[in-house]
Write a structure and sequence with these properties.
Elements: E1 9-13, H1 17-23, H2 28-48, E2 53-60, H3 68-91, E3 95-99, H4 107-119, E4 127-134, H5 136-152, H6 163-167, E5 183-186, E6 205-208, H7 218-229
Helix pairs in contact: 1-2, 2-3, 3-4
Length: 243
């Protein structure tokens, strides 16, 4: 029997909040509220499963195009989330990271996310990494710009640019050996990436749940993780048993 895959970095596209709410005859933002509560449940479950980095896609650079009221609600979610769950996060030694274009956030949201990162900075357990105002093409573009500047100034030649130099300039660089997700789960039945971690997902396993995010529970997570552990990750090579 092949050894089980190690799940260090799990990424989730938390999709389907709006549809969850509509199904119950509620406004879309009721789905975001329930989705927020589910973040706590899944974070604790991920921690119990021994996951080291949990990346949650919470707001994309494209989500600004939603109705003003919905955007305002989503921008206020970090305020409510950390207000409610910070004691639990501290008690569980969870370290918070927020990756995205944070300087574009409303001042109140900016302050709250910075404070959450500062307060949990010395925690050594699970890294809870929110992608908030995050877009992968922008992220890669920023990395390319930085390298371009280094060429312009004569610090490097274009010939020196390699994959490692690009990886090091992405927002996930700080996770070191765990910077690329091992598994990506998207809820709500959609099967697309929607500008999430394009570079980092090169060899991630992909999984899709038909459930909307507020309904995706600990047992679902457990099932997806077990299924992942038994997959055959080849990274372009041939099976060991086949060589
Ligand atoms: C995911 O749920 C949360 C965000 C993108 C902020 P949606 O709000 O996209 O829910 P659906 O896809 O419209 O059901
Ligand atoms: C992706 O969901 C972004 C988040 C979950 C935060 P969307 O609902 O915005 O993606 P599309 O529009 O269906 O591709
Ligand atoms: Mg959606």
């Amino acid at each position: 029997m092949a050894e089980k895959n190690q799940l260090n970095h799990l990424a989730i596209i938390m999709d389907g909040n709006g549809r969850w709410a509509r199904k119950q005859g509620k406004p879309r933002v009721a789905g975001h509220h329930e989705g927020m509560n589910n973040v706590e449940r899944i974070t604790l479950a991920a921690d119990k499963l021994g996951i080291k980095v949990l990346s949650l896609y919470a707001f994309s650079t494209e989500n600004w195009a939603r109705p003003k009221e919905e955007v305002a609600y989503l921008m206020n979610l970090p305020v409510r989330f950390f207000d409610k769950f910070m004691p639990t996060l501290m008690a569980n030694n969870v370290k918070v990271n927020i990756m995205g274009y944070l300087d574009q956030l409303p001042p109140k949201t900016y302050k709250v996310v910075q404070r959450a990162m500062a307060e949990t900075a010395d925690n050594t357990g699970l890294i809870l990494n929110f992608a908030f105002n995050y877009g992968s093409r922008s992220e890669i573009t920023s990395a390319v710009k930085e390298l371009g500047g280094m060429i312009e100034s004569g610090a490097i030649s274009s010939e020196q640019i390699d994959e490692e130099m690009i990886s090091q300039r992405l927002m996930t660089a700080k996770f070191g050996a765990f910077r690329d997700p091992d598994l990506l789960i998207r809820t709500s039945g959609e099967q697309r990436i929607s500008n999430f971690l394009l570079w980092q997902l090169a060899y991630s396993e992909l999984a899709f749940s038909p459930k909307n995010w507020p309904d995706f529970n600990e047992e679902d997570l457990q099932e997806f993780v077990s299924e992942f552990q038994n997959r055959n990750r080849r990274f372009g090579k041939v099976d060991e048993s086949d060589s």
